[in-house]
Structures are given as structure tokens and as C-alpha cells.
Amino acid sequence: MTDNHRTRPTQGANARLQKLAQDGEVRRLNGEYTKAIECFTQALAIHGGYAWAYAHRGAARAAIDDWDQSCEDFGKALDLRHDYGWAYAHWADAHRSHAIYRLGTADTLAEWREQHALIDSALAYFDEAARLSPGSAWTFAHQGAAYTYKYWLEVMPRLLPMLALDDGRAPSPAGAGAAPRGLPGPRPASAVPAARRVDAAALGLESFETACRLNPRYAWAFAFKACLLALIARELPEDEMLRKLDEARACLLNGLMLDVNRRLLVDAPVAKLMSCAGNFPLSVATGISGIEKNPGDLVSRYFIAVGLKHMNDPHANTVIEQTRKILISARRDIDLMLDGLAVLDGTKSLDSVTNLHERMTVESIALLAFDPTWRELRASRLPQADPREANPATTESQENS
Fold it and tell me: Annotated region Disordered: where (predicted)?
């Protein structure tokens, strides 16, 4: 251990340390994660044994899915302070978030199975966090969210057999770091057991109920509990399903009433929930509320179109066509931004970016005009398509003549 770890900071250095810690936490809570990481790193340069700074830098890194570095920070925090419930809870939630990020880019069934290893590790860390911090509503609410995701992993193979998903478990993913004090860590494939078999739905509801008992105004916990209730409903017979969906709706509405700052983004989930229940008028009304708050809410737009068609609205086909155009436009914008990111990190050269003429939307043209990523491209002239290729009939006529 270095002197920096052993030596407590002087009075002057301690004042600077506290200032950096406070600034870092304010930036982390405001979503300025890279600035927060800088502040915590400077704090650790002053006092390398500061478990709090390691844990909160780990949380900031988890927020941008800097997975390996995040795990390293949480591991150091827990090595320095073995009873640190906050670090256990946020490392657990980092596993849940990382699993969701990983699934978003998964291409193989093995990557699907990896989800179970991540979420089971998350639940083990949440168990320890709950033991150390039994009064933390945040811990129990996010433990409920982890159980919800585990239940989702179990439900989807049954609901979507055509995808050939399973509930097997792969080895714990690389980068999880050494397991602190007896908790599960990376193991060889031969030592990995089957996925943790628990009643994830029941345990998730229990966690949410504990969170709401500890903090009766916890809007996020009510909203996430509604998601779990909707998942449970999806596998029930129709009559029971409708009753459970109604319970989920009431839970969501409770969360909305408690959300005085209107920070919960629940319009799209409610629209989806009501569509599943066959309440298409309410699904459409909720979707309209969603796009009033956020015109870029594509899921709400989709369920407006779905609901209108099921209601036999005479203008449904017009709305479907409009929604299709919006989704195609969004896909073109996303494709261009993905190319921009690939150019920035060097995985793609500007010369290899093609088909720009086929992706022209208001947003994509603005991106090309103002984003410095495309500066060199703006100075060149894109090759124009051969007009004969656009009209094969004309080409054939000219050749025959």
C-alpha cells in the first residue's frame, strides 16, 4: 500500500478533498458523469484510501457503462470498507444496467444466457446491501428492479418460443472483478451452476413493497412495481390477466400522482400496458400525452397508431402512414449518428461512409452541416448517383436506340 493510502490528508488538503467530493457528487447526480469522474479521481490523488470516492466514481463510471473500471472502483471501495452497503447496492445496480446494455447489442444466444450470470450476481450484491442497510428504500426498490429483470428473462422464452431463447447460464462475464468477502465472483465455466432458481416475481414484489413501506412517496418504486405486475399478468388466463393489468395500471397512476416533478417517463409503458389489456382508447390517450411531453417518443406514437387501427378509426391508415414515415426518418438519423460514432472512435473512415444521399432527413442534413465529425466530408463533393440507374427503363430504351 502506498503512502497516499496510509497517510491522512492535512487540514488544507482535507478541505480541498471535501470540495472535490461534493463537486463530484453534484455532477454525478446531474448526469455530468465524465466531470464527476474527474473530481473523484482528483480526490483520490489526495487521499488514496477514500472508500467513498472509489464507490461514487464507480457509480459514475457505471452510468456510462465503463464496466471494467466501474467494477475495479467498487471492489476497491469494499476492500477498504467491508460493510459499505451503498457500494454493494450500487455495484448490484451496475450489474443490472450492464446486463441491459449488453442485451441491446447481443447477437448470439450465448450473449442472451450471459444475462443470467449478470443478474444473479446483482441479486447476490443486493442481498448483502439489504443486510447492511435495511432502512434503504433505494436498495430495496432497485433490488425489485433486478428481480423484475430476472423474471423478464424467464418469461420471454415462454412468450416467444420462435426465438429459441433459454434460461441457461453462461460463465460470469469477464471484467466482473474479484468478489469481495465471500460474494459470487468470476468462476470457470465448469464451476458455473444453473441460473439461480427463485420465485423472482414474488421476491420482486416483496422488495417493492418494502421500498414503498420505507418511503411511501417513492414514485419510481410504484412505477417499476407496475412493470412487474404487467409481466406477471401477461402469462395469466385472460380474465385474471385483465384484473392484474388493472392492478398494474392503478400502481402506475399512484406513481404518477407522487411524481410531483414529472420526472417519470411512463406514458409509453402505460400505452403499451393498456394496449395489451385491450383498452385501446386509454392506450391512445396516454400515447398522445407522451408525445405532448416528448415529440420524440416513438413508442407512444406507435401505440397511437396501433390503438386507432383496433378502434376502427377512419383515419387510422393515415396515422399509420405518418408513423411509418417518422420511424423511417428516425432510423436514418440513428444510422447516420452510428456512422458518426464509428468515425470518431476510428472503427470507420469517412471514405467508407456510403449511401448518404439515401438518408436525407431534416435532422441528418443538420447533423452533416453542423457536427464537426463531418467537417472533412463537407469540403468534398459526394458522388452523384447515375440517373440511368434510377430509371432502368430509360437506360434500356437508350441502349436499344
Answer: 380-401
The span from the CA of 264 to the CA of 219, in Å, is: 8
Report d(CA 93, CA 378) in Å as an integer.
Answer: 43
pLDDT score of 185 more than 50? no
Opening angle at CA 347, ends 341 and 349, nearest 5: 85
Task: Write the Ramachandran bin of 198: left for phi over 0, alpha for psi from -120 to 50, otherwise beta.
Answer: beta
**C-alpha–C-alpha distance, residues 46 and 268, integer Å:** 46
Q: How far apart are CA 367 and CA 148, in angstroms?
A: 38
pLDDT digits (tens, 9 = 90+) for 327-359: 999 999 988 899 889 988 888 887 777 777 777
Does the pLDDT of residue 260 top 50, yes or no?
Answer: yes
Which residue's C-alpha cell is 479521481?
Answer: 41
CA distance 334 to 337: 5
Contacts for 334 with CB less than 8 Å, ≥ 6 apart: none
Provide the terminal-to-terminal Cα distance of the chain, rounded to the nearest Å.
Answer: 86
Q: How far apart are CA 218 and CA 145, in angstroms?
A: 14
* Residue located via cell numbers 452497503: 85
3-class state of residue 97 by DSSP: helix
Residue 278 confidence (pLDDT) = 81
pTM over 0.85: no
Degrees to nearest 5, angle at CA 349 with 348 and 354: 90
Distance of CA 109 to the CA centre of its chain: 20
pLDDT tens by residue, 74-90: 999 999 999 999 999 99
C-alpha cell at 158: 415462454
CB contact set of 279 (below 8 Å; sequence gap of 6+): none
Whether the CB-CB separation of 218 and 141 falls below 8 Å is answered with yes
Cell of 218: 417513492
Tell me: the pLDDT tens digits for 270-294? 788 778 778 888 889 888 988 888 8
Residue 68 above 80 pLDDT?
yes
In whole angstroms, how far apart are CA 59 and each of 45, 65, 91, 92, 143?
Answer: 18, 9, 7, 10, 16
What does the alpha-carbon distance between residue 7 and residue 155 come to, in Å, rounded to a whole number? 52
What is the sign, positive or negative, of the torsion defined by CA atoms of 28, 34, 39, 40?
positive
Query: CA 227, CA 341: separation in Å to the nearest integer?
Result: 33
The rounded Cα 103 to chain-centroid distance in angstroms is 10
Is the distance from CB of 319 to CB of 305 less than 8 angstroms?
yes
